[in-house]
Amino acid sequence: MDKLSHLILHAVEQGKWKGIKAGKHGPDITHLMFADDLLLFGEASERQMKCVTDTLEIFCDMSGQEVIIEKTSIIFSRNVERSMRSRLLHIPGYKETNSFGNYLGVPLTGRVPKRADFQYMLDQVSAKLTAWKANHLSFAGRVTLAKSVIEAVPIYPMMSTKIPKSCLADIQRMQRQFIWGDTDQKKRFHAIGWDTITTPKWQGGLGLRNLEVMNKACLLKLNWKLQSGCEDLWCKVINGKYAASTSKVTDSSLRKTLIELEPLLQQHSVWQVGDGSVIDAWSDKWIDGDLRLDQHMTIPSHLHGLKVRDIVDGNGYWNWSLLASWMPEEYQLKIAAIHPPRQENGRDIRVGVGGNSSDFSVASMYSNLCGYQSKDENTVWSRIWKIKCPERIRSFMWMAMHNRLLTNSLKKETTIHVLRDCPKAVEVWTQVIPAQSRGPFFMGELHHWCNLNIRISFECRWHGDWHALWVTTCHSLWSWRNKELFDDDFTRPYSPLQAIMRKVEYYENSSMLAGVMNPKQQTIAMISWRSPSEGFIKLNTDGACKLDRSAGCGGVL
To answer: Could you tell me which residue ranges the Reverse transcriptase zinc-binding domain spans (predicted)?
Structure first.
């Protein structure tokens, strides 16, 4: 295919092949290739069609390949007359089409995407759900599949297309039904709301994503590239075709979507000063994290439109004679804390809020759009998911902490009664907890009790991991209770504590043999120095230690 590309470029150099120009300042496009798929672009004229067919014939003679006429089609622009279309189609014998269909999972329609264009996604999700037998999977298993497989289906189209809301809503509806075990014959109880499920695990959710917000985060990556000077071909096409910063009726659907999302990009990104040639001094965020000067003061009309480099004097320092007469001192101090722009610093860099990398992170943008703060590994919810036990037990405790376990309301049964206060539960716990520790253990309502057992380790008659023992005991008590009610052949273990301890040991041993490791993901957070409030002084300190036990620290006052 590289040889074909060379032949096309040679025809362009000779003036025989005339590609399509993307706007007044855009590039000329003659061909796009991916693997063995090929898109050719040219002027709608008989001479141009003859050049295209001749070039393909030369390539076929050289390579031994053939053009499959049945799989080749032509799309004409709207201003090509019907008579010309007929003549051009007659030359190679190709068929005319209004759409190229789906390419790499994305519909190539040339118009605003419709729900019908993404029906294939709904069919794909439905086929996967039909293949999985929800009744044979645990709740944890269904959540894992819903998150890792179903969510992945629309991600690729999301990266370049605004998918209709109704389509994404249907996918999430199928997710909900699968997670809770709904079937065509029976709708089951949805114990916890979808808004909770789609929050991060460390905030009490299950970490599934809101697909509509995820679509925005993916599209904002395109906006980011456009404004970061990316040299990709599609960026050159967009910038060359659409010079204005506002959208028109005739603009493409992608262009309109990017303009619509522009305020979100401004809201959730800041600038690092380089040479100061790109950053608007008043309307962009480049001071003290996310401060925009025009939102805090009135900018003199004769200074509108200045870039950051324009408020520097001839010696490379901030031009205080330009700013001091009208800018409050508070904001002058904020500017003074920033190094003035210099050519050797390189271009200005846009940085996502919450990170110090100039590379766009869809995950970080999604968190920002949802309003999630920086991840806290020390919450009770975070600790639940780190307990060394099977995922189904962690999921069970998540449900219990939300107080959403199904109980017998006719007998005024509660979650804390089943897990701790029931006589059969008390019998097991008294075998685990020594007499001197039973007082605090058996006190408090459900939320207090769960927090207590997750944050501390009770002294008990087993020297293993207390948290693993505690959650496994809770799950066993719940499981035994249900089996007694619904399985006439079930009897509780003769030695409940021994049975529970064996479960804990089995998981620990299997984890060691399999080398199970959950690497901790690092979250990069952007930090900046801020001057102390009036009347205060600030001491900044830092310290470090090495494996040889040497350490050091320092501070700046």
So the answer is: 360-422
